[in-house]
Design brief:
Blueprint (H helix, E strand, L loop, with lengths): L1 E4 L6 E4 L3 E5 L6 H4 L6 E6 H18 L2 E7 L7 H11 L17 E6 L1 H14 L3 E5 L11 E6 L2 E6 L5 E5 H4 L4 H12 L1 H15 L5 H17 L8 H21 L8 H15 L7 H22 L3 H24 L8 H11 L8 H7 L3 H7 L1 H8 L4 H4 L3 H8 L6 E4 L2 E3 L2
Parallel strand pairs: 3-10, 4-5, 4-6, 6-7, 7-10
Antiparallel strand pairs: 1-2, 5-12, 8-9
Length: 426
């Protein structure tokens, strides 16, 4: 249990996470960390099994606490198919069938992966009432310590309330080897926190929404930590990998402390996730979440800058003005990192902004502009400055082999149980 006293209306924040281990070769401690469990169900995909899952499996088997392993095909999306597969394979048939007995469920679910695997296992854990933990394989998002799971359901992406990981194990030697697009995705996810906190403050002032200054400060501290360290990501600097990994976890903790994703998800996520949904609607595999959120962040920054210049509301102008220096730092960061864009077509870009307003029931600058009758005007107006100042090429141009690598190069598929991808270690 992690607890913090606070001066906000909640007075105290707590989460049931027991261990957060961020260190070199942290995987080697997995047996000690999970020593209280006897039937652990390990879930990975083809890629994460190769980079970490196989070793975790060996360690748990040596301890005699591994029930079985499920290896999903890559890319494993956080959708109904993946969740259904994990649910179907979670239980084990008993050695002797008994018509009066239920299947033998695990006592723990261990996700080995990052965003998709983690969110999938989080949902299954929540539905089955079985604790879960995660061995993170990339600093690609802030959801390791989150309590929500954005999941693809049909042609929609819905944010579900879920449980939180009881154990978070981040092996820095593994994270340092993550593909560079995943490292950029982590930066894209974290830089949007300034937008999210500003949205939160606006809703506090206009709607009386609950707001916690301590949580907001913690999120922004995590954001600054990641921004400062991000220059060392491409060279795989060990200190940079640690700082970004810890910053992303801290951001996720703040979601859990708050009980919602409000401190870490605002306009930038609503726009970015709408672009993801638009891909799903067209039968395409969504782009990396953090990459789209990064582009959504740049969009939100320009919306706020324009509003700051034009608003007649002195209090709102002053509030936005406090964030302008941070927005300047993010723009400078983008000139160095050049996080690629996924949406450059003007019509699609504007559609994402307009539809993003209703992605979820959350008051942001998008709703404010809509209420002022100016959202369509602003959505169209920011297209040119965003493309001019922030776009240094598309994801496809910068990483043309990404999809092939995801589906092929890293895939030395583990078919240890025929075509099922399930290994029984009873």
């Amino acid at each position: 249990m992690i607890e913090r006293a606070c001066t906000c209306a909640q007075k105290r924040h707590s989460i049931p996470t027991e261990v957060i281990e961020v260190s070199d070769h942290a995987i080697e401690r997995v047996g000690d960390i999970l020593k209280d469990y006897r039937r652990i169900f390990l879930v990975a995909d083809d890629n994460t099994y190769q980079v970490a899952g196989r070793r975790v499996e060996e360690l748990l088997r040596e301890r005699g606490c591994l029930s079985h392993t499920l290896v999903l095909s890559s890319p494993a999306l956080p959708n109904a198919e993946s969740i259904g597969r994990v649910l179907m394979e979670a239980g084990r048939d008993r050695t002797v069938y008994d018509i009066n007995a239920w299947s033998l469920n695990p006592d723990y679910i261990l996700a080995v992966g990052s965003g998709s695997i983690n969110d999938t296992c989080r949902m299954v854990s929540y539905r089955l009432g079985i604790p879960y933990g995660v061995v993170g394989t990339a600093p690609s998002m802030d959801g390791y310590a989150s309590v929500v799971a954005p999941l693809l359901n049909g042609r929609n992406k819905i944010v579900y309330n879920c449980t939180i990981a009881r154990h978070i194990i981040i092996d820095l030697s593994v994270n340092a080897q993550a593909p560079y697009p995943l490292l950029l995705a982590g930066v894209g996810d974290i830089i949007g926190k300034y937008v999210a906190i500003l949205d939160w403050e606006i809703s506090r002032d206009r709607n009386g929404e609950y707001y916690c200054g301590q949580i907001a400060d913690m999120v922004l501290k995590a954001t600054e930590q990641c921004i400062t360290a991000s220059a060392g990501l491409e060279s795989r600097d060990a200190a940079a990998i640690r700082a970004v990994s810890e910053g992303l976890i801290l951001s996720g903790e703040c979601i859990a402390f708050c009980g919602s994703s409000r401190p870490a998800s605002g306009t930038e996520h609503m726009i970015g996730q709408t672009w993801e949904v638009m891909d799903v609607e067209e039968g395409k595999t969504p782009n990396l979440h953090g990459i789209e959120v990064g582009e959504g962040t740049f969009t939100a920054i320009e919306l706020f800058r324009r509003l700051w210049r034009e608003t007649k509301d002195g209090a709102l102008q002053a509030l936005i003005g406090r964030y302008l220096p941070a927005f300047d730092r993010i723009e400078a960061l983008q000139r160095r990192l050049r996080i690629p864009f996924t949406v450059t077509d003007r019509q699609r870009y504007v559609e994402g902004i307009l539809r993003g307003r209703t992605f979820r029931d959350r008051y942001t600058v998008l709703q404010y502009l809509h209420d002022q009758g100016r959202l369509e005007e602003y959505a169209d107006a920011v297209y040119a400055p965003v493309m001019e100042k922030y776009c240094f090429g598309t994801f496809q141009e910068r990483f043309p082999d990404w999809e092939a690598r995801q589906r092929g190069a890293m895939r030395q598929q583990v078919r240890r149980a025929g075509a099922s991808g399930v290994v029984d270690n009873r």
